Amino acid sequence: MDERDLRKIPETAYLTAENAARYRAVLHFCYQCHEHMQSYVYPEEILRHLKETDFFQTYTAEQLDQDLGQLVDWHNLTQHQETTRARSIADFKRKKFRYQCTPYTVEIERMVERLRSIGDSFGGSLESTQFDRLLGQMEAFLERGENLSDEELHQTWEDLMHYFRTLVENASDYLAHLRSAKVEERMQTSAFLAYKDMFTKYLRSFVLGLQKMALRATELIERAEKQDGLLDRLFDRLSRRQEFLHLMDEHHERASFERDIRADWDALRVWFLGTDYRQSELHVLEDETIETIRRITRFAQRIAEEHQMQRSRKQDYLYLAERFLACEDKREADGLASVVFGVSGVRHFFAPADADHENIHRHVEDVPPAEIELSRRVRGGGVRRHRSVIRERGMEKAQALREYREKQRKMQEMLDGLMVDGCIDFGHLPKITAPLRRNLLTWVDRCLSKEDRTVALSSGRRMHLVWEPGNAERVCVHADDGDFWMPAMRLVFDGEGGREGED
Predict the structure, then answer these.
(1) What pLDDT score does 502 carry?
(2) Taking residues 385-412, what's their average pLDDT?
(3) Would residue 9 count as lying in a domain?
(4) Confidence at 118, pLDDT banded by 50, 70, 90
(5) Is position 154 within any domain?
(6) 299: closest CA among 172, 171, 197?
(7) Per-residue DSSP letters for 171-203?
(8) pLDDT tens-digit map of 454-500
(9) Is residue 437 domain-resident?
(10) Any long-range contacts for 116-123 (C-beta under 8 Å, 24+ apart)?
């Protein structure tokens, strides 16, 4: 990270300053002029434009000069002395200026306009046609890149990154929009049923396109990585082209361009292929889209069931009455009633299921019957309770306490034997016992739960975990119950106090 990345940005001060309304109005007018190819703006034009609104009716030219001077100090505007309209030496000495927006101001105003158009909800879309454009640029870059000129290769790379960012942003924004409370509430209304099928079809077409694109994109990336030096040659040509395009920029070097290009490629690769410890974002997007389809289906089914419950059952009751009237005797009527209304006087029993009860391929006839012992439902028929005396167990408690303290003393002696210069290094431990290994890992877990990885022990000593998350080095801890591989870590103890042991 460069020092320039950490400096303050004075160009954004006008957004939160005390007179932010005046500053924003002035800069927004200058930005609109810039967008209409009017590079320079005169104070008279700004004042005339502001006077058209009721908010600036009392705004004076002196206040405008002060605001323009402050915006120049914040590097939002650059001023140029106007000499063509000077008709005398006095006019020349008064230094009339014209103003121009700086590049920072233009980008900030564009961002503000975009924020205004976004509102309080996410946008985005899930168009499967984005996959075709992305795959086309990926094939052109990886398969035909070496045959393209530097200009064509650079444009292909820019298009590839543009389509990739567009796909990721639109998909994430759209799914976030579907998970919002407003959309969840709308899905639970009756009006949602009207376009449920069309909406589900829209999501399913996206999933199908996503699955087809995933296979082809994964194949292209893996094939390119297997070709010796292909990506290095392409990245080298891209960095040279970037350096050529920024010849006048003294703050950029070719190494920084190549580093940014490789970072963009790594982001694209991880999104499609993932890593050893992280699932690819492609599969995450697919799972979230499928889960959204399931949630929409559940909402639609619930709404349909509510409508079914509210429907008039008069015709159904009349039909049942005719069926009961047609029964020849009471036995036939009881059979019909048992089918329609269920068996009367039902008792429900719960039996614990066996270990294999979640096997969906197991037939109910293969499940062994469960035995339930019923108690008598009469007064005094419960389980008899036997009274017992309270025994004095003071000697047993004292013996248990002595054994516990002796066990803690032995554990502390073993821990002290592992400590070298107030430090326990997991990479240089001898073979230890299983309880000792559990005790050390408990300490590691306690330290990891703290932000500074430091834990104060009850004895007064402080224990600090030394570990670099980016370090890929791994060590093996040999114990009686097996070998345990873990990242390279050290426990450092400081302070005074007694000994500390845990089981």
Answers:
(1) 46
(2) 83
(3) yes
(4) low
(5) yes
(6) 197
(7) HHHHHHHHTSHHHHHHHTSGGGGGGHHHHHHHH
(8) 888 766 778 888 888 777 788 888 888 888 888 888 888 885 443 44
(9) yes
(10) 121/177, 121/180, 121/182, 122/173, 122/174, 122/176, 122/177, 122/180, 123/170, 123/173, 123/174, 123/177
409 and 266, same domain (yes or no): no
- Does residue 127 sit in the same domain as residue 188? yes
Among the listed residues 348, 347, 346, 351, the one whose alpha carbon sits nearest the alpha carbon of residue 369 = 351
Q: What are phi and psi of 96, to 5 degrees?
A: -80, 135
Domain boundary among 277, 296, 315: 296
Q: Does residue 380 lie in a domain region?
A: no
Residue 459: how many other CB atoms lie within 10 Å: 14
Q: Which of 251, 278, 296 is the last residue of a domain?
A: 296
For residue 352, give the 3-state DSSP assignment. Answer: coil
Sequence letter at residue 500 = E
Listed residue (207, 242, 234) closest to 147, CA to CA: 234
Q: Which two tokens stand for residue 341?
A: 């209304």
The answer to whether residue 72 scores a pLDDT higher than 50 is yes
Strand 423-425 relative to strand 490-494: parallel, antiparallel, unpaired?
antiparallel
Helices 150-178 and 129-143, axial angle in degrees (round to 10): 150
Domain that holds residue 19: 3-117
**Exposure class string for 118-127: b at 16+ Cβ within 10 A, else e:** eeeebebebb
Q: How many domains does the chain have?
A: 3
Co-location of 196 and 278 in the same domain: yes
The DSSP line for 88-157 is SHHHHHT--EEEEE-HHHHHHHHHHHHHHHHTTS------THHHHHHHHHHHHHHHSGGGS-HHHHHHHH
Tokens of 258: 């190549």
State pLDDT tens for residues 10-51. 888 888 888 888 999 999 999 888 888 787 888 888 999 998
Q: What is the dihedral of CA 258, 264, 267, 269, to 10 degrees?
A: -80
Residues belonging to the chain: 503
Q: How far apart are CA 221 and CA 107, in angstroms?
A: 34
**Segment among 2-16, 185-199, 202-216, 334-348 with least mean pLDDT:** 185-199
Same domain, 107 and 92: yes
Q: At what angle do helices 20-35 and 103-118 cross, to 10 degrees?
A: 100
Residue 137 sits in the same domain as residue 273: yes
48 shares its domain with 69 = yes
